[in-house]
Write a structure and sequence with these properties.
This protein is mainly alpha-helical. The chain is built from four helices and no strands. The protein starts with 10 loop residues before the first helix and ends with a helix.
């Protein structure tokens, strides 16, 4: 015997998920079935759930911007303006949750 699950979602979310799963070669119903199967197999959510960390200021940086910042960093280092790498890594881990 099969059971039916009804879920109300925003129209836009439904449209986007339908399009996504179609592009992936499946449908939303099958994707939900896969999710439920994996949840049971994992004895919990089949993916990590966490708060969204603060946006990474370097994520959307273009290659040109990155190269500019690297050059600025080199100039700062030559002028003696730098921090210990371990201190920087500790700060990044706490700020970005990495």
């Amino acid at each position: 015997m099969a059971s039916t699950i009804q879920v109300r979602v925003d129209d836009e979310l439904k449209r986007k998920s339908d399009d996504l799963f179609k592009d992936l070669g499946t449908d939303t119903t099958t994707a939900i079935r896969i999710f439920l199967t994996q949840a049971v197999a994992n004895n919990g959510f089949p993916f990590e759930i966490k708060r969204v960390p603060a946006p990474n200021p370097f994520a959307a940086m273009s290659e040109e911007e990155l190269l500019s910042k690297l050059e600025q960093s080199r100039q700062n280092a030559e002028a003696g303006n730098f921090r210990d790498a371990n201190e920087v890594i500790t700060d990044m881990r706490s700020k970005y949750g990495i």
